[in-house]
Design goal:
By secondary structure, this protein is an all-alpha fold. The chain has 11 helices and no strands. The two termini are 31 Å apart.
């Protein structure tokens, strides 16, 4: 029990370490292209998952209500403040950005003046990508029931993704391992006590809501629109609940 969650945490830590240490070896254009590739992949997965539910009205209601709740609670702002505090606590006060000398002057001017500004963003984005999606929920439920296979697969995927994220955002990505531990560990714990607590229809609704949130994350990764996706997280709880009702 919980072996899949433990494996996922370890691969995120290892992937972040590899990506952060190797970041200086890659020019900015390579890191930018890698991030665009991750954004496109996230967008594809989001579109696929968003079409899962046969009944969309409960999911729509969950997204709208979840967004209102998230904005009132200021979930994203809270995560950003946590990331900023952790950045100041662990990343030091001054860290110069890595700038590719081959970039044109106009592009250099648009780069962040301080690589520290990416620390909190890496924590928030990586946490969303690693914890929003059906594999997180279904894998954690199975992990609580003693079958970690799905989370082993997710652990491998997250390990490669964390390396790519860390090459762009730095060490802040490693803190998403704590989010993975809390979220997946909590779901696995509930599953260990209650068993498989989601019906097929509720799981489909959760998958669709998660896919919609992943589309928002993808738009953020592609630098198209900075949607406050974390403020939509309550929809992941409301979607299966509304569907069941």
């Amino acid at each position: 029990m919980f072996l899949g969650t433990a494996a996922n945490v370890i691969t995120v830590i290892i992937g972040t370490t590899v990506g952060a240490l190797a970041a200086n070896r890659f020019p900015e254009r390579i890191r930018t292209t890698v991030m665009a590739g991750l954004g496109l992949l996230t967008l594809t997965i989001g579109f696929r998952d968003s079409l899962e539910a046969s009944e969309l009205i409960p999911v729509l209601a969950a997204i709208l209500a979840g967004g209102v709740i998230g904005e009132l609670l200021r979930i994203e702002q809270g995560l950003e403040r946590l990331g900023d505090w952790l950045r100041d606590r662990f990343a030091g006060q001054h860290e110069s950005p890595v700038i590719d000398p081959e970039l044109p002057e106009a592009a250099i001017e648009n780069l962040p003046g301080d690589r520290r500004s990416r620390f909190g963003e890496g924590f928030v984005v990586a946490s969303l990508v690693f914890c929003v999606g059906p594999l997180t929920v279904l894998g954690s439920i199975n992990d609580g029931l003693g079958d970690p296979e799905l989370l082993y697969i997710k652990a491998g995927l997250d390990g490669f993704a964390s390396a790519a994220f860390a090459a762009v955002y730095g060490w802040g990505v490693m803190l998403s391992a704590v989010t993975v531990l809390v979220v997946q560990g909590s779901i696995a714990g509930v599953s260990a006590v209650l068993g498989d607590f989601l019906s097929e229809a509720s799981l489909e609704a959760l998958t669709t809501a998660g896919g919609i949130l992943l589309i928002g994350v993808a738009l953020r990764l592609l630098d198209l629109k900075r949607i406050r996706v974390a403020n939509l997280l309550p929809a992941l709880v409301l979607a299966p609940l509304f569907t069941a009702l």
